[in-house]
Design goal:
Immunoglobulin-like; three-stranded mixed β-sheet; four-stranded mixed β-sheet; mainly beta
C-alpha cells in the first residue's frame, strides 16, 4: 500500500515512473533581421527543434517580404518599418527563407537559411 502511495505522489508531482522530471518548456530564441540593399542580415538562423522563435524584421530601404515555405510563413514589411512574428520550430532540417515580392526582380536574390537541429 505504501509503495502505491509513493508512486501516486511521484506521478502527481510531475515525475514519471523512472523518476525523471517532466519535459522542460521550450527555449525562446529571438532574432533581429535587417533587410537592406537586397540582403537579409543575418542570413543564417540556428535554433533547436521545438524552440519558440521570434523574428523582428526591419526593412531599411524598401518594401519587402520574408517567407519560409516549410512553416507557411509570409510576412510583409514596408520601407522603414518593422514587423515581429513568432513560430515554433517543430521540425528539424534546413529551410530557405527569402523575399517573395514579385514586383522587384532583385528581391529573388534575398535569401537566407534557417537551421533547426533535432533533439
Amino acid at each position: 500500500m505504501r509503495g502505491r502511495l509513493i508512486l501516486a505522489a511521484l506521478l502527481v508531482s510531475g515525475f514519471d515512473v523512472a523518476g525523471s522530471a517532466q519535459e522542460q518548456p521550450p527555449n525562446r530564441r529571438e532574432f533581429d533581421i535587417v533587410a537592406e540593399q537586397y540582403r537579409f542580415t543575418p542570413n543564417r538562423l540556428e535554433v533547436a527543434q521545438d524552440d519558440l522563435v521570434k523574428i523582428t524584421l526591419r526593412s531599411a530601404d524598401q518594401p519587402l517580404s520574408f517567407a519560409i515555405d516549410a512553416y507557411r510563413i509570409v510576412k510583409r514589411v514596408g520601407a522603414g518599418r518593422t514587423v515581429a512574428f513568432e513560430f515554433r520550430a517543430d521540425r528539424p532540417g534546413t529551410f530557405a527563407f527569402y523575399c517573395s515580392m514579385a514586383s522587384d526582380d532583385r528581391c529573388k536574390d534575398m535569401r537566407g537559411t534557417l537551421v533547426v537541429t533535432g533533439r
